[in-house]
Methyltransferase domain-containing protein (Nocardiopsis rhodophaea), 267 residues
Amino acid sequence: MVETPPVVSVLDTYEKLAEVYDAVTDVPGYSQWMKIFIDLIEAHDRPGDRLLDLGCGTGKSSVVFNDLGYQTTGVDISPAMIKIAREKKEMSSIDFVVGDLCDLPDFPEMFDAATAAGEQFHYLDDAAALRSALRSVRSRLRPGGLLVFELNTAGTFATLCAAPAVRRGSGSVVVLDGTASAPFAPGSCVEVAMDSFTEATDGMWRHVETRHPHRHFPHDEVAAALSASGFELVTVYGIQGGKLHEGLDEQNDLKSFYVARTPEATG
Ligand SMILES: C[S@@+](CC[C@H](N)C(=O)[O-])C[C@H]1O[C@@H](n2cnc3c(N)ncnc32)[C@H](O)[C@@H]1O
């Protein structure tokens, strides 16, 4: 009999990954990557400085946004990730809230912009879930507010499924290995197995194994979901060789960056 592995939720995954998350993301260029989100907000008429960092994790993205002059609130589904964020001294001026981006909590004010830095939307099962997440985000943005989020391209998922990838940081080694139920095709689901090895102070290495269920969203589905949830798609960018360009090459770009806006109030 073939055993079916239990379904993992994004919450289970990050509750387990939390204690090693900062170590495994201690890689060169992390802050520079986060700055792309702010550069895109600034390039599209920065609507204001109240920023909601969706899927903020342990606050690594939030602190970069905050330091770049945005009054940042971080929200994340994982209490363990939020607990770590709240314990960091350098993040004492940032509000961190536990919440699901598909059903965001109420906040005292509307936000001028929202970011999703990480693979948050890939954890959603289908286009209907993507639409409801985007609707939830839209409800927390003021008219004329901006949303900037990144997604993996079809090419990146295909590469992850073709062979394991090894990423080395200072004091960490991460192996990522994607499996699709059939050869990867755009719009399909991939489970990414992540083996994180982190060096402890006693010189021993710790191994944490997590599974990340991801769904690829082709550009047409993203554009349709944005429109159905009341956003205007402003521009999509692709990134290749570290350089951002307008438009998207699903096969050769590493990731896409979407910039979307809520309509201005009329009357
Ligand atoms: C790759 S981490 C990125 C964390 C952070 N933005 C950073 O740059 O370090 C993805 C985060 O998204 C969170 N996440 C995924 N799905 C979510 C959801 N539906 N609602 C809220 N947070 C979610 C996870 O718990 C995790 O902390």
The pocket of S-adenosylmethionine is lined by residues 10, 14, 25, 55-57, 60-61, 76-78, 81, 100-102, 117-120, 123 (CB under 6 Å). The longest helix spans residues 10-24. The chain has two domains: 17-152+215-261, 156-214.
